[in-house]
Design goal:
The chain is an alpha+beta fold and 212 residues long. The protein is 32% helix and 19% strand. The protein folds into 2 domains: 1-91, P-loop containing nucleotide triphosphate hydrolases (Rossmann fold, 3-Layer(aba) Sandwich), CATH 3.40.50; 106-212, P-loop containing nucleotide triphosphate hydrolases (Rossmann fold, 3-Layer(aba) Sandwich). The protein has helices at residues 63-70, 93-103, 119-130, 136-145, 161-174, 196-207; strands at 19-30, 37-48, 78-83, 86-87, 104-107, 179-182. It has a 4-stranded antiparallel sheet with strand order 2-1-3-4, covered by helices on one side. The chain has a two-stranded parallel ribbon with strand order 5-6. Strand 3 and strand 4 form a beta hairpin. Helix 4 packs antiparallel against helix 5. The chain binds adenosine-5'-triphosphate and magnesium ion. Magnesium ion is lined by residues 63-64.
Length: 212
C-alpha cells in the first residue's frame, strides 16, 4: 500500500490542526526471510479532522495494518505516526495506553462488547476503567442520537446486531475522542448501516473543540 493523500496542516478548526492523524513513510513488515511480508511500504497519509476517511483496497493490501498502526494498536517497522501533534511511534507502553484511552475511539468489527454488562455499562466502560466520570449531558446526547435510550439496561445478547453496533458507536463517542477508528463488517455478512444522523453526529463530535 503506497498511496498518498495530503491535506493542509492548518485551517478553519479553531487553531487546531486540520489533520487528526498522519503517517509519514510508514513501513510495516511481518516475519523475516522467505516469509517476510511488507504490508506497508513507505505510506504517507493524512486523516482530516471532522471528516470521514475510508481506506479501501483489495483483501491483503494492508488496510487493517495501516489502521492498527495509525491507532497505536501495533508498532511500525519504520516511519512516524502522529496523532494531532503527538508522535506516537516511540511512545512507551504506558503513555500509548493512556493516549489510546483518552484520545482515540474504536469501533471493532466484532464490536467487542462485554456480555455480562448491559448497554450503558458497555458504553461507559472505557471511562470507568480510566476512573473518569462521564459527562452526563454529552452521554445522554450520544445515547439519544444513536437511538438506544430505551435499550440501556439490555445486555448484548438481548440486542439486535444493529443495536449492538450502535452500542459500540456510542462507546467510541462517549469520551469525546479526537479520532475514531472503525473496521467495516465482514463482506460476507449483511451490512448494518448506522443511522445517517449518528454518522454525521460522529463527524461533528470529533470536530468539536476540546479543552487542551
Ligand atoms: N501477523 C501477521 N503476520 C504475517 N503477515 C501478516 C500479519 N498480519 C497481516 N499480514 C499480511 O500483511 C498483509 C496485509 O494484511 P491486512 O490484514 O492489513 O490486509 P487488509 O487490507 O486489511 O485485508 P482484508 O481486506 O482481507 O481485511 C497481508 O498480506 C497479510 O497476509
Ligand atoms: Mg482487514
Amino acid at each position: 500500500m503506497t498511496s498518498a493523500v495530503t491535506i493542509p496542516r492548518h485551517g478553519g478548526t479553531g487553531g487546531r490542526t486540520a489533520v487528526a492523524a498522519r503517517a509519514r513513510q510508514v513501513v510495516k513488515a511481518y516475519g523475516s526471510g522467505e516469509t517476510r511480508v511488507v504490508a506497508l511500504d513507505h505510506v504517507d497519509v493524512d486523516i482530516a479532522r471532522g471528516q470521514f476517511t475510508a481506506i479501501m483496497g483489495p483483501s491483503g493490501s494492508g488496510k487493517s495494518t495501516l489502521m492498527h498502526c495509525l491507532a497505536g494498536l501495533d508498532t511500525v517497522t519504520g516511519g512516524q505516526i502522529y496523532l494531532d501533534e503527538t508522535e506516537i511511534t516511540g511512545l512507551k507502553d504506558k503513555k500509548l495506553t493512556q493516549l489510546r484511552r483518552d484520545r482515540i475511539g474504536f469501533i471493532f468489527q466484532a464490536f467487542n462488547l462485554l456480555p455480562t454488562l448491559n448497554a450503558i455499562e458497555n458504553i461507559t466502560l472505557p471511562m470507568d476503567i480510566a476512573g473518569r466520570k462521564p459527562d452526563k449531558q454529552w452521554l445522554a446526547r450520544v445515547v439519544e442520537t444513536v437511538g438506544l435510550a430505551d435499550r440501556l439496561k439490555h445486555r448484548p445478547t438481548q440486542l439486535s446486531g444493529g443495536q449492538q453496533q450502535r452500542v459500540a458507536v456510542a462507546r467510541a463517542l462517549a469520551a469525546r475522542p479526537e479520532i475514531i477508528f472503525g473496521t467495516s463488517r465482514p463482506e460476507t455478512s449483511t451490512p448494518v448501516p448506522a443511522p445517517r444522523s449518528s454518522a454525521s453526529f460522529a463527524a461533528r463530535s470529533t470536530n468539536s473543540a476540546r479543552p487542551s
